[in-house]
Inverse folding.
């Protein structure tokens, strides 16, 4: 779904999100987390939001958690290919902080990279170093973004809320080529990805940390709750 073809409800949600982000007055780039379960619609929301706030004088940096995976060996070393491993060991949070979030923060150098690893090739990547301006806006989408290792690095936090049954249906439609069959997708989500999210919900309670919650069971007619102005 593109901004040009968005529904009135989605346009309203994008306005509700973009207005407080643009209104933030800080002396470094604004770092926005767009968190939520797998297949919640985070990337599409982030892309639509980027188009919404991409106005003269403002520049958006787009990045996501997929650029900060750990290697397959590291991901599976402690807990195997399990929900526990998925939640605890999927991502390289020190690299995410040092290469992207801290450089864009207070007293940061503003020199950043948007990725360090390609999880599909299971190999490191050398993304070019870029330089941000003080009024740039980072829109960063991914899972597990409000966990303790990262929560102090965000200037605005969005949580995309979707029922787990909805995420499984979306994943079945989206990921069959990746996993080989609808049944394999369903099994992976039921045995690994949803239980991993439940661990996150139990330990972190991410919705309680969010500045805004987007209710996205129907992406054509979402709604938004602003928790912190």
């Amino acid at each position: 779904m593109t901004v040009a073809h968005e529904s009135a409800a989605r346009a309203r949600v994008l306005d509700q999100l973009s207005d407080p982000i643009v209104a933030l007055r800080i002396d470094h780039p604004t770092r926005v987390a767009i968190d939520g379960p797998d297949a919640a619609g985070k990337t599409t929301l982030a892309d639509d939001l980027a188009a919404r706030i991409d106005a003269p004088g403002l520049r958006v940096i787009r990045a996501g958690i997929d650029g900060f995976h750990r290697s397959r060996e590291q991901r599976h070393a402690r807990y195997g290919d399990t929900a526990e491993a998925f939640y605890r060991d999927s991502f390289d949070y020190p690299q995410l902080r040092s290469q992207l979030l801290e450089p864009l923060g207070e007293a940061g150098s503003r020199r950043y990279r948007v990725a360090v690893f390609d999880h599909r090739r299971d190999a490191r990547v050398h993304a070019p170093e870029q330089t941000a301006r003080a009024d740039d806006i980072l829109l960063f989408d991914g899972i597990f973004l409000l966990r303790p290792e990262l929560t102090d690095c965000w200037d605005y936090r969005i949580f995309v809320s979707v029922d787990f049954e909805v995420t499984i249906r979306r994943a079945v439609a989206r990921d069959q080529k990746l996993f080989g069959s609808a049944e394999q997708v369903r099994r992976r989500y039921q045995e690994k990805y949803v239980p991993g999210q439940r661990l996150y919900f139990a330990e972190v309670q991410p919705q309680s940390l969010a500045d805004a919650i987007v209710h996205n069971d129907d992406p054509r007619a979402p709604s938004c709750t602003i928790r912190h102005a």
